[in-house]
Amino acid sequence: MAVALVAFTACQKQAEQAQTVYSIDELYSQADSLLGDTIYFQGICSHLCKHGGRKAFLMGSDESHILRVEGAKMGNFAPECINNLVRVRGILHFVEVVPEENAMDDGLKHGEDDNGCETEKKAIRKYFAEAVSYEIIVEE
Description:
This protein is 20% helix and 36% strand. By secondary structure, it is of the alpha/beta class. It has a five-stranded mixed barrel with strand order 2-3-4-6-5. The radius of gyration is 20 Å and the shape is globular. The relative contact order is 0.19. Mean pLDDT is 78; it is low at 104-111.
C-alpha cells in the first residue's frame, strides 16, 4: 500500500507540472530551477530560422526576453507560427557565452594592464529550449 501511495503521489506531481504553462517572462525569472525539466511554456513567435524553421524565437512581454527554441528532434516549426502565440512542450537548457577579449574595447581601458575588469569577462548565461512538441494557440 505504501508503494502505491508513493507512485500515486509521483504521478500527481508530474501531472501538476505538466499543467503549468510558463510565459517566457516567468520562464526567465525561474530558469535555474527549471533546467533539464520537460515543461510547457508559451510566447509570441517573433520569427523562425530561415533554414526550414528548425528554430523558433518566442518573445516575452518585450524584446528583452526572447527564447530560442530548437525543433531539431521534433521537426520544423510551421510558418504559421510567426506572429502567433505558440505553446511548446520542451526541455530548458543553458549555455555560457564568454565575451571576446576585444569586445570590451570601448576606449575606456581599466583594470590590471589595461585589460579590463575581471567582472566584465565573466560568462553570460543564456537559455534555450529543445522542443518536444508545439501548438499554435488560437484566441477565441
